[in-house]
Amino acid sequence: MSATLPYGVTAAALIALGLFGLVAQAAVLRKILACNLLGGGVFLLFGVVARRGATAADAVPQAIVITGLVVAFAATALAVALALRLHQITGAATIAGEPESGPRGE
């Protein structure tokens, strides 16, 4: 059994939970959280694949993962801001159906 096997299984579980959340959830914030789970699983899987041997690890994949984390944080902040704006305009917290009324203030 390899030392990276638990990390690979955890990454696969995070990716599966993220995909399930994207498909099954109608709430916008839950979809954003599912995207974050999916991204975390991909980052973990990328780190597991980049691992070489017991002590050595390549620095380039580590730098790419760190850059990806920063981009994912910025994308999450933008998605939350857009979700708040969607809630202000439609008054709904989900994207499952049509809103009952028009935009507020009109």
UniProtKB/TrEMBL annotation:
Transmembrane ranges, per UniProt, are 6-25, 32-50, 62-84
Location in the cell reads:
Cell membrane
Membrane topology, from the record: Multi-pass membrane protein
State which Enzyme Commission number(s) the record gives.
Answer: 1.6.5.11
Query: Major place of localization?
Result: membrane
The UniProt entry's sequence similarity note says: Belongs to the CPA3 antiporters (TC 2.A.63) subunit C family.
What is the protein name for this chain?
A: NADH-quinone oxidoreductase subunit K
In its UniProt entry, the species of origin is given as Roseicella aerolata
Source taxonomy: Bacteria, Pseudomonadati, Pseudomonadota, Alphaproteobacteria, Acetobacterales
